[in-house]
What does this fold into?
Amino acid sequence: MRKMAKSRIREARVGLLFLSPWLIGLGVFTAYPIIASLYFSFTYYSGLSSPRWVGLDNYLQLFKDPLFWKSIYNTLYLAIIGIPLAQALSLLVALLLNTKVKFLGIFRTLYFLPSIVPAVATALLWKWFLNPQFGPVNLLLEKIGLPTPGWLTDPLWSKPALIFTSIWGVGGAMVIYLAGLQNIPAELYEAAELDGAGKLSKFSKITLPMLSPVILFNVVMGTINSFQSFTSVFIMTGGGPENSTLVYALSIYRNGFQFYKMGYASAMAWILLIMTSIAIFFVFKFFGRYGYFGGVDRS
Amino acid sequence: MRKRTLNKAWIYFMLIAGALFFFIPFFWMFSTSLKSYDDVFAFPPVWWPSEALWSNYAELLIELPFLRYTLNTVFVTAMTLLGFMVSSAIVAFGFSYFRIPGKKVLFRILLVTLMIPPQVTMIPQFVLFNRLGWVGTFLPLIVPTFFGGAFSIFLLKQFFDTVPREFSDAAKLDGANEWKIFLKVYLPLSKPALATSALFIFIWTWTDFLNPLIYLNDDRMYTLSIGLQQLSTSRTTAWPQLMGGSVLMTLPIIVLFFLAQKTFIQGIQVGGIKS
It folds into this structure.
């Protein structure tokens, strides 16, 4: 009996030894920074001199800062319009590809490739593609007699332009939906057909419910990613024109690394952490039941 | 029957229209990279340059100097691959093989860290590396990778869990210790998972923008993403060069995709939404 316990202790020890790189990293690069940024958020801190305690001052200032609210508005705008649009489109493409089309491999590749183009290249490409004078988009719009917006140079059109750009990269979500669709047992459809179900009712009664874990997973991960989106905006607009694309993550970067208001930026970071935690809470609430893959086959 | 064919025609029409939307920007990127300034600012825009200027690439590589940026990126990516792969495999084995009190909680924490926005930890990390005098070197980009990557650990652990216990028991009877079992039993059996993991690490590092932006300040050390972004601010209208740089940066990933298409698609399906 004692020998047994001893070997269990040894096993735990050796196991911890294997985990130790990650445990150290967790402490130094994740846990400490999270706590430190909470502390910084209660200070004035330029990053050069030592932090000076100011209590809730940063948070009070934030709530009075019109740019803070603007950045929240912009981030939510991009998320609320961009995510449903991207999910609907990638689901639509997946549904089309799931109808036993020919050249499935070629189509899938074409739709997927843009999602692995580096963010910097995507941003530059679309900035150029949407160029009001020399870009092909406006050339095409003009040819078919539609108005030619200034896209990234027009505060009204800059956010739609960013959404356009992000939709170009939905190939990843499409591949996940396609796998989810292929996992729905064909018998379900056959049984429904025997009962005289039409296309629409098959979609709403079988496809959507069977796919709902995948959809939820994609939407929640999309939301989390969208809260952090930074590179495309930084390169395409730098937050302009008239702060119409100043998103939350860009605002944190600017305050911290361009204005050296690291306390202020840390307060923003903590608000982001709280918003993300709420999203993570929902991930676990919804997916504890389904497993982390939302039903996607791992074979 | 007629309705069926009509339906199919609609499906193909929509698929092809969509495929054009996805493909044309690629074509535009490539064609612009070969244009002269006259062609770039022609009105109306031209789809293909009157004369393809391959010399744009020579200028890009030598003068701008993207060859240097490419080598820097290769170096950082190689070190990151080494760091993440070695440490993540070890940690994943720890999670999979051993009975450790509190392991489940730790694994849950690992999953949570996957979702923490980099903006939350970015400032204190910068302060830390600044104190160490590492800002302006590659160290802040490389050293943290030796402490494991949550995504790779997760992926490898799931795979290690499927290795039959009989294999390690047999090795144990032959006198192998845990380290030997890890090296001789688990690693050789896990090549597909190791490949998927390496692929994703490669792409994340190759395309990373935020970290190099924060930590690299000497233009001799720029990675491709920062070099390209700096060029876009210093020469805002140098579209042939900017698109050429984008092509250079994208090409290795596309080549890799065609070489390892299956690994790619499977990895995405396992949980690669985070790209």
About this structure: The first helix of chain B runs from residue 2 to 33. Chain B touches chain A through 98 residues (CB under 8 Å). The two ends of chain B are 43 Å apart (CA to CA). DSSP finds 15 helices and no strands in chain B.
